[in-house]
Amino acid sequence: MADVIILGSMALDTIETPFGKVERVLGGSASYAAYAASFFAKPAIISVVGEDFPEKEKNVLLERGIVLDGVKREGKTFHWEGFYEFDMNEAKTIKTELNALASFTPAVPENYKGIQHIFLANIDPSAQLEVIKKLKNPGLIVMDTMNFWIEHKKKEVLEVMKHAAILLLNDGEARQMFQTTNLVKAAKQVLALGPEAAIIKKGEHGALLFTKGHHFNAPGYPLEEVKDPTGCGDSFGGALIGCLAKAKKHDQATLRKAMVYASAIASFNAEDFSLQRLKTLAWKDIEQRYQEFVSMRNF
Ligand code: AMP
Asked: Which alpha helices (DSSP H) does 164-228 contain, by range?
């Protein structure tokens, strides 16, 4: 049985970075997050794809043991088009074609009920609220979002936050959400809304963890080859919830370790386009990079 639910987008992405361009490749927050989580746990996706979604991409996820019973198929697949300039920390959106995502009402299959680790990855906050409602008795909820939804549906994003135990945002989104330049102040506002932890991702510079009375930061991995950072945030979130599901706890020490594993997986993801690098990743690569993180912090 699966032990992590991942709600998010499944997409065909068109991406240009200074190192190349790919068209209509597998992407979406749920695809990245589930693949990343699968190194630690057994994920089950809730999402929607179109009739045009290639069978071979579906098989990439199935072969990894990812459960797709909660993935609907209707209309056209969500298509995101973006580019990065030399500052690869910031994705610039050219086009967001929501397609099937626009009218998507998520359903929670019977065999997902009872799963205790939920990742509400980046998707319409109305869909996130719907899943919370349908789960009735959800366990640990980790939530992510993005600037698009903060801009268009801030009220709903705030509502979802009240149900989350752990909130993930990147630094730009935290500033946008809480109208402050100061990340410590933004994190305080998150904690005042209800979550026990706020994790603020800072792209290549790592991630900050704020809980009541504690602060931790995981460094970014000094990567020499960054081809495409798309999905780094999602794979960070997926790896994080996967680690927490594996540990079956989320105390301070577990959260810190999970953040370092999540940073390791996210750094691998940036090494190639789409899910290419995650597909070739072996457990020993992850463990080796985790140990490098440990020694990077040794002084
Ligand atoms: P990340 O780089 O981790 O922030 O996420 C990149 C992924 O998010 C891409 O694969 C996109 O398909 C997906 N994405 C982009 N815009 C949206 C959106 N508005 N809602 C949900 N997913 C999106």
From this structure: 171-178, 183-193
